[in-house]
Write a structure and sequence with these properties.
Helix content: 55-70%
Order of helices and strands: HHHHH
Largest sheet: none
Radius of gyration: 16 Å
Number of helices: 5
Number of domains: 1
Shape: globular
Amino acid sequence: MVFAAMVGYSHDERREISGETIEIILDTYASDEKDGFIYLLGLLEHKDGQVLKDEKLKECVVVFEEYCNAGLYIIEDWLNENPGDPSGVDTLLDKIYQRLSENEKLKDINNDEIEIDID
């Protein structure tokens, strides 16, 4: 799910969850220290340190779920476009390599331009 959320984020696509859902239990991600991705996406989306407070946790979870949902649809499209790869491994690796290649071209990104309010 973390991979799917990162795919959704990298494509700048969120998709609302509809229908019956199972709520994300933070302990599922905290047990192997992946809960940081939930907080990271919430922080990147809201650009406000207040979102890290316990009472705002639900906002981070919603952001994570929506990026994850979008990412799952994107991954599904990738796999459907490559029916000759029944396991999907080659397709996913190809997409990862493509993204790495794109990122190499953007190495001179200035992280100083990112502003996050922390009160």
